[in-house]
Amino acid sequence: MLSKSQARTFFLGGTIITFAIFLGLSWNSLSNDVPKQTNPQNLNEQVVRGKHLWESNNCMGCHTIFGEGAYYAPELTKVFERRGEGYIKAALMAKTPWAPRGRKMVAYGFSDAEAADLVEFFKWVGEVDLNGFPPKPDVSR
Amino acid sequence: MKYQSQKVAYWFFAAAILLLSLQIVYGFIMGFAHMGYDGLHSVIPFNTARAVHTNLLVVWILLGFMGAAYYIIPEEAQQELVSVKLAYIQLISFLLVGVVAIIGYHLNYWEGRKFLEIPRPLDWLVVVNVLTFLGIILATLYKGKKRTTTSLVLVMGLVFAALLYLPGMIWFDNQTMDSFFRWWVVHLWVEGVWELIMGGILAFLLIKLTGVDREVIEKWLYVIVGLTFLSGILGTGHHYYYIGVGKIWLIVGGIFSMLEPLAFLAMALFAVGMYRKGEKKHPNKLALYWTLGTAILSFTGAGLLGMAHTLPQVNMYTHGTLVTAMHGHLAFWGAYGMIVFSFITYALPNLTGRKLYDTVNGQLAYWLSNIGMLGMTAAFGVAGVAQVYLERKTGLEFGAVQQEIEVHFFVLVINATLFATGITMFIVEFFRFGKPNDEALGFEERMQKA
Predict the structure, then answer these.
(1) What ipTM does this complex have?
(2) Does B229 touch chain A if contact means CB atoms closer than 8 Å?
(3) Most buried in the list B26, B221, B226, B410, measured by CB within 10 Å?
C-alpha cells in the first residue's frame, strides 16, 4: 500500500510537472497564438479606450464577450457583425434605458466619441479567431 | 478549543454568514429580474447586483477560510496565535474594504472584470490585508511546536491563493491576454488552491470527528491534493477554448478537465471511508453531516456538473449560457460554502461551550439549504439547456429565448426561498450559541470523555 512519503512525492511531482507543462503551453499561446489570432496590430487607441469603457462600466455584469460575463443580456462578440454601428451607438447613447422586449439596460448616455470607441472595441473583438465560437445555429426551424 | 486566541475565529464566521445573507438578497434581486420583475433597476441594476452577489461570495468564503485557519493553526501547531489584536484589525479592515467596494458598485465604480470587479486601489488594500493574515498564520506556525501535514497543506493553499491574486492585477490592452491571466486567478483559485484549503480543513475535521489515525488521513490528503493539481492546473485549458488562443487547449483542457472530478471523487470516498472506519463517536453529529455532505456534493456540483459541460464539443454550445450558472451554484455551495458551514458547525460548540449538538433547527438548516440548492441547480439547468437549444442550435434571438425561459426562474426563486429559509435557521442557531468565552477551553475534550 502507498506510504505517506510516496503520497507526498506524488503530490509534489505531479504538481511540478503539470505546472511546468502549463507554463510552457501558456508561453507558446502568448507568443504564437495571440499574434496570429487576435490581430494585435489593430489594437489602436480607440479600441483600448473602448476596452476601458467596457470595464469601467462593468458591461460584463450583464453581457458576455468571448462567452465570458453574465447571462442577463446578449453575447456581444459578434455584435458589430449582427447589429452594425448605428444600432450599437443608439443603445449606448440612449438617455432612457434601452429595453428590447422589456429587459432594461442602464441608460449610459455615452457621448458620440465614447460610443465610437466602444464600436471600435466590438469590431476588434469580432475579428478575433475564437476557434469557431460562437457556434452557427445548425438545427433548421 | 484549546487556545484562547482561537476565539477570533468566531468573529470571522459571524462576518461570513452576515455577508452570505446579503449575497442571498442580491441573488433574489437577480432572480426576479430574470422573471421580468426589475423594479429596482434604477437603484440596483443587474450588473450591480451581479457584481455584489459574486464578490460577496468570494469574500465570505475567504472569511470562512481565514476563520478556520485561525482556529486550526493554533491547535495543530500547539501555539497561541502570535497576535490576536492584529487578527481583529485584519478582520475589520477586510470588511471595510468589502463595504467600500460594494458601495462603489452601486455608484458605477469598478474594474468590471468578471469576479475581479474590485477597483485597483482597493486591490492593493486586499493585498496588504491578506499579507497581514498570512504573516500571523506563518509566524504562529513558525513559533509552534509542531508542523503537521494538515496545517502545511492548509497554509500552502492560503499562500498560493494570495500569490495567484497578482496576475489578475496586470493591465492588458488585449482582451484575450486579459482573459488568459484572469483565469490564472479565478480558475487556479477555485479548481486549484482553494481545493488545497478545503482538503486541509476536511482532513482536520475528519481527524477530530472520526478519530481515525492522523497518519492515514494525511496520506490520503496528499493523494487528493495531488489529484487536484494534476488535473486542475492543465484543466485551466477549458477556459482557453474560445478566447483567442490555440486549439491545443481544446485537447489539453478537454482531457485534464475530464480528470478533474477524480479529486472530488477521492475526497468523497475518503470522507465516507474515514467515517465508516472511525470508532470514535464525536457528539457533534451535525458537523459530521455537513462534512460528509460537502464531500459528496462537491463531487456532484463541482466534479460531475462541471465535467458535464467541459468537453469542447459541448462547451462550444453551453459556454456563456445559464448552464454555467447551474454548475457554478452547486459547485461553490457544495465545495466551498458547505466546507465553511461544516467548520462553523464543528467549531461553534467548542468556542462557546454550549452543547447544541443535534438540534431541530440545525437539522432543518442542513436539509432545507441543501434541498433548496439542489432545486435551484435543477432550475438553472433546465433554463440553461433550453437556452442552449433555442438560441445556439436553432438561432432564436436572445431576448425571445429569455422570455421563453422566464418560467424556470419562478421555480428558481421558490427553491431559493427554501435555501434562504435553511440559511436563516443556520443563522438563528449561530446566535443561540452566544459569544465565545474562556470557559469553553477544553470543552471538546470534556464532552468526548462524558
Answers:
(1) 0.96
(2) yes
(3) B221
> What amino acid occupies position B142?
Y
Give the range of the structural domain holding residue A1, as residue numbers without chain letter: 1-37
Cα-Cα-Cα-Cα dihedral sign, residues B144, B150, B155, B156: positive
DSSP B330-367: HHIIIIIIHHHHHHHHHHHHHHH-----S-HHHHHHHH
Give contacts of A37 with chain B, Cβ < 8 Å. 176, 244-246
The pair phi, psi for residue B201, each rounded to 5°, is -65, -45
Cα–Cα dist B38/B32, whole Å: 7
Cβ pairs bridging A and B (under 8 Å) = 215
What is the pLDDT confidence band of residue A139, given thresholds at 50, 70 and 90? confident
The 10 Å Cβ neighbour count of residue B39 is 10
Q: Count of domains in chain A?
A: 2
Give how far Cα B57 sits from Cα of A8, B271, B329, Å: 32, 25, 11
Domain count within chain B = 1
**Closest residue to A34, CB basis, from B36, B105, B174:** B174
Print the domain residue range for B91: 4-449
- Residue B347 in contact with residue B8, Cβ under 8 Å? no
Question: Which of residues 391 through 450 in chain B touch A, CB cutoff 8 A?
Answer: 392-396, 398-400, 402-403
- The yes-or-no verdict on residue A141 having pLDDT over 60 is no
pLDDT of the residue at B448 = 86
Q: Are residues A89 and A112 in the same domain?
A: yes
User: Do residue B320 and residue A74 have CB atoms under 8 angstroms apart?
Assistant: no
